[in-house]
Write a structure and sequence with these properties.
alpha+beta; 3-stranded antiparallel sheet; 3 helices; globular
């Protein structure tokens, strides 16, 4: 089946998450993107800094499958890398 994308939501974090792209914390009060979908193991919800997610607009399926958190050039965030 692979990945089946259902929806994205942009909001303000009410708790601390880890960005699946840069690998840094998303601090409470920060803007982030919540992505929901399904894979072979069931439902999945992920979190990404809104700024990091914006840098993936030209990614294809292979880019997403081969990416490791923290790999590549990502924005830096205040509050000790959050």
């Amino acid at each position: 089946m692979g990945w089946y994308h259902v929806e994205d939501r942009t909001g303000t974090a009410r708790k601390r998450y880890v960005c699946i792209l840069c690998g840094r914390y998303i601090s409470v009060g920060s803007r982030y993107v919540s992505r929901f979908g399904y894979d072979n193991e069931g439902p999945i919800r992920t979190a990404m800094h809104a700024e990091c997610e914006a840098l993936t607009s030209d990614w294809d399926a292979m880019d997403w499958e081969c990416h490791l958190p923290g790999e590549g050039e990502w924005p830096t965030y205040a509050e000790g890398g959050e």
